[in-house]
Design brief:
The protein has 298 residues and is α/β, with parallel strands linked by helices. The protein is built from 15 helices and twelve strands. Bound molecules: iron/sulfur cluster.
């Protein structure tokens, strides 16, 4: 199967971009693997006219919005992110009416419709930097309350309002789970994604995006770590650090939507050149503004 995927990619001039949360075997056949910000940047830089996006729908949608002239394929259109749908346009409009001097900041993990109604998009790696540089005093952060609260803890000069969305995978990792593991492995460092709750982040030696976690773990002289994010990162962590020991916190540290992108579906997608991601021109033009501003400010 790997050889066939390689052959088809070359023959059809298709580039495969994958998120760190998809299965290791999908990461293995990919041309680029990274976090949301890196993938959004790479989607703009690659020469191929067709991008096969191994990730959830909002990521493929963002690639299409940033590259309307390119064809973007997703191996399973049902791979969606529950958190991306937890924000609402009605809430944004309500906040805009009620709060003066307000910037609506939208995590990139959101639908194109939500992006179209916000002022700027951010990722977990650039959120604090971008919010600090916004001229508005008040910030409405949507859809992820945990990332919003983490950014607020770094940007004390702004007033924050939060939508109450969350990532079910990171929300399920609790402070008690991490403390238990810490008792079992007292020498291990705790590395956490900011989609975890603040009570978990307070226990962390490092907080950052998936790329940040992988880089930190690889550069550290410590040999043992507790990883508070989706299990897909273990593929790259173990590939780069075969001698180090990584512990997951809970057994279901798994995003079932990311795992819908299987190697078999990637092959089908290459063969049949589907499923093509479509975003209407009007929506694309509106959603492009906050995405472009993110690229500029980051
Ligand atoms: S890990 Fe969480 S935020 Fe990421 S795609 Fe899955 S549900 Fe969405």
């Amino acid at each position: 199967m790997y050889d066939e995927i390689k052959r088809l990619k070359k023959e059809k001039d298709i580039v495969i971009l994958s998120h760190y949360y998809v299965d290791g075997e999908v990461q293995k056949v990919s041309d680029y693997v990274g976090d949301s910000y890196y993938l959004a940047k790479i989607a703009r830089e690659v020469n191929q006219k067709t991008i096969l996006f191994s990730g959830v729908c909002f990521m493929a949608e963002s690639a299409k919005i940033l590259n309307p002239e390119k064809r973007v394929l997703i191996p399973d259109a049902l791979a969606t992110c529950p958190m991306a749908h937890m924000g609402s346009v009605e809430n944004i409009q309500k906040m805009r009416k009620e709060i003066q001097d307000l910037a609506v900041v939208c995590y990139i993990n959101s639908t194109a419709e939500l992006k179209a109604h916000c002022d700027v998009c951010v990722t977990s790696s650039n959120g604090a930097k971008i919010v600090k540089n916004l001229p508005q005093k008040n910030i409405y952060f949507t859809p992820d309350a945990h990332l919003g609260r983490y950014i607020a803890s770094l940007v004390s000069e702004k007033n924050f309002y939060f939508n109450d969305g969350y990532c079910p995978v990171h929300q399920d990792i609790t402070r008690g789970d991490v403390e238990n593991l810490k008792r079992q492995y007292p020498k291990a460092l705790v590395l956490a994604h900011p989609e975890c709750s603040l009570s978990v982040l307070k226990l962390a030696d490092y907080v950052g995006s998936t790329s940040g976690i992988i880089d930190y773990a690889s550069n550290s002289s410590i040999e043992e770590m507790i990883i508070c994010t989706e299990i897909g990162v273990f593929y790259e962590l173990e590939r780069r650090n075969p001698h180090k020991k990584f512990h997951k916190v809970i057994s279901n540290q798994i995003c079932i939507d990311m795992k819908k992108i299987t190697i078999e579906k990637v092959l089908e997608s290459l063969k049949d050149e589907k499923i093509e991601v479509e975003v209407s021109e009007e929506l694309r033009n509106q959603a492009l503004i906050p995405l472009n501003l993110m690229m500029e400010l980051a």
